[in-house]
Amino acid sequence: MGSFKIAVLDGDGIGPEVIKQGIKVLDRVGVRFGHTFHYHFAPVGAVAIDQTGDPLPPETLALCKESDAIFFGAIGHPRFDNDPTLKVRPEQGLLRLRKELGLYANLRPVAGYAQLTHLSPLRPERMVGVDMLIVRELTGGTYFGEKGRRDGGNTAYDTCIYSRAEVERIVQVGFEAARNRRGKLTLVDKANVMESSRLWREVTQEMAANNPDVALNYMFVDNAAMQLILNPAQFDVIVTDNLFGDILSDASSVLAGSLGLLPSSSVGAAVGMFEPIHGSWPEGAGQDRANPVATILSAAMLLDHLGLVAEGDAVRHAVNTTLESGVGTEDLHPQHKVGTNAMGDLIADALGA
Ligand code: IPM
Ligand code: MN
């Protein structure tokens, strides 16, 4: 019987409406298993810029630090996207949150649903057995290395920089995840070109000696991009840097048939953050059209992280039975669709509390 303080950063676009479904499901878990979740809402992203001028107001950061978990919706708005001169952007809120909280490990599971293989851009037979976890380093590399302009602004640079300690801790997450899954770890890098990648390889090779039960292999990122399309079932756990992980996890996320299915967690510090991997879809906001499954599965990861693994499993089971019954939002069932809110109700009801 636990009592938990959850920081809810629902953000922009469809963020608030999918988070509402996640909360609906968490509340039902509370009833069934006897827990209480206390939700504390705070602004982040474009909404926060509108309200305070800051995409991550100090009050929001303070709330996150004193909570048991952060439940995050989505951020971003097109009015910020095409003006390179803007100094303040919604995305800065997310990046600062990751850095300030020390959330260095981003876990993105990608699995196919048997009843949805017709939605995959790949032929159904290529989706058989697809079940992988992308472990993306989240607080280093090109995202946070020195960047700037020279020559009166005509030359621009971003630095990809990693320390041994940063590599070790994320690769360790990869080894542990592989040990709890099918025992296979793939390090994805560009060690034929980049010095930072050569450090990743060196450190990972050294760590392999202490992890003899995990089968380790190495793959260059360009080949990995190709292999994710040609034969995604070959992967169990992929560990990679911040930028490669961003690109590969977005590419992999469409394999299951809809971006609206995939959850993520960002962990490494006392408090973890849980969010759907999709963006804010501003055109769909407020229309009861968004798929809440990614957010609800993120709530399941949140439960796991709080040590409530049976509760997380119950949520995943409720999602599976709901999808198996053939209902879904318009991304899954254009002919027989249900809205965001109704989909949330169905999954909550499948929890049977
Ligand atoms: C993600 C997003 C972010 C990233 C953006 C919004 C800064 O694409 O979480 O993958 O690049 O990390
Ligand atoms: Mn991304």
Automatic annotation (TrEMBL):
Main location: cytoplasm
Free-text remark on how the cofactor is bound: Binds 1 Mg(2+) or Mn(2+) ion per subunit.
Pathways per UniProt: Amino-acid biosynthesis; L-leucine biosynthesis; L-leucine from 3-methyl-2-oxobutanoate: step 3/4
Subcellular location: Cytoplasm
Binding site residues for Mg(2+): 222, 246, 250
Keyword Metal-binding: yes
Binding, substrate: 98, 108, 136, 222
GO cellular component: cytosol
Top EC class, one word: oxidoreductase
UniProt entry keywords in alphabetical sequence: Amino-acid biosynthesis, Branched-chain amino acid biosynthesis, Cytoplasm, Leucine biosynthesis, Magnesium, Manganese, Metal-binding, NAD, Oxidoreductase
Pfam family, one: Iso_dh
Domain Isopropylmalate dehydrogenase-like: from-to ranges: 5-347
Site positions per UniProt: Important for catalysis: 143, 190
Cofactor: Mn(2+); Mg(2+)
Catalytic activity: (2R,3S)-3-isopropylmalate + NAD(+) = 4-methyl-2-oxopentanoate + CO2 + NADH
UniProt-listed InterPro entries: IsoCit/isopropylmalate_DH_CS, IsoPropMal-DH-like_dom, Isopropylmalate_DH
GO BP, one annotated term: L-leucine biosynthetic process
Homology family: Belongs to the isocitrate and isopropylmalate dehydrogenases family. LeuB type 1 subfamily.
Known partners and oligomeric status: Homodimer.
Stored NCBIfam families: leuB (TIGR00169)
Name of protein: 3-isopropylmalate dehydrogenase
UniProt source species: Neolewinella lacunae
